[in-house]
Amino acid sequence: MFRHIRRVHSILLLVVAMWLSLAAAAQSVTLAHIGPFTGPAANDARDLNAGMLAYLAEVNAKGGVGGRQLDLLTLDDRYDRAEFSKQFSQAQSRGAVALLSPLGLNALRALLEDQLLERSDMVVVNALPGATPFRSPGHPRLFHIRASDRQQIEKILVQASVVGVRRMTVLVHDLRAGEADVKGAQAAHAELGALVLQLHEAPDNADSLASLARTIAASDSQAVLVIGSPPRMAESVAALRKAGVRGHIYALSYLPHGLLSTVAGQDAARGVAIAQTYPNPMGSTMPLHREFQTAMRQAHPKLTTYSGFHLEGYLSARMAVEGLRRVQGAVRPQTLAEALRRMGPVDMGGFRVNFSQSNAGSAFVEIGVIDARGRLIY
User: Fold this and answer.
1) Which residue of 84, 128, 314, 332 shows the fewest CB atoms closer than 10 Å?
2) Which domains does the chain possess?
């Protein structure tokens, strides 16, 4: 008799626990961040995540979206293509409606070449890198916030032309990902004058990279553009400076200036120009600066310096929330994608995104230059 009562009691407790779990789930919306928290881009993944958490904490403190709290599911892909696929399936099984800012060639190749997005209805808000193979044709549920690699290269070529550069060497660490952008930018740049580009695929081996750097230093090249992952770009700049290259060196936005100073040294980093696809995270002139820095101070009071990846994570989360606020009906990946396309221009404190014409929402590019004190000056 008592055994039967205990069994009934256990069943009731299980039912109540399941009901509470379902009720909690109904009061929250899950977003996912899959990043290389282990591996060469770990610092960038952590900065992206910190920016996302800062914005979501601010939204949740104000009651969430439609009374529902926002959860961020954080998963480590270890900078590995197969592991990204595994974690993507995990995010899908946990009910994530959107994936924020996947980072790295492995992640994007898994999403598009391995057709993960064809086997899922999840929305992707922002992605790094922004190479043409991942945008053309791209995917209807992959929304790009940052300007493309080609737009960054075009900006660099224009600026190089203005300062008198006529011969430039381009070091690309993954020719399959970067060649189309370099050639497309060169074609777009033709009307500005004769700028001759010499394209090289940068070798993985340190000795081979050093040898190539010496060859470039002995050539008549007036400037060098490096394209690749943050560590590889930093290594390339270090090798070029060590080989004696003193001319203009440019890099794409993925290279944090702090990483460059650490790898190459402050003297070698001085004068390197880096394309920027977002406003200065340490700036003070835009409403976005105030809003972003307030959120970061509240969520991460021990941080005193903010990186471009912090701001990118913040804006990725903010863009997803802007879409969620405009969802009509039940919150699902499809209704979120429809809301993002339908909402037109969105002004996030001076940084504008618009998906009404295409899935590429911003063309913002500026050039920052590292000064003698290691600061990035816009």
Assistant:
1) 332
2) 11-146+285-353 (3.40.50.2300), 149-276 (3.40.50.2300)
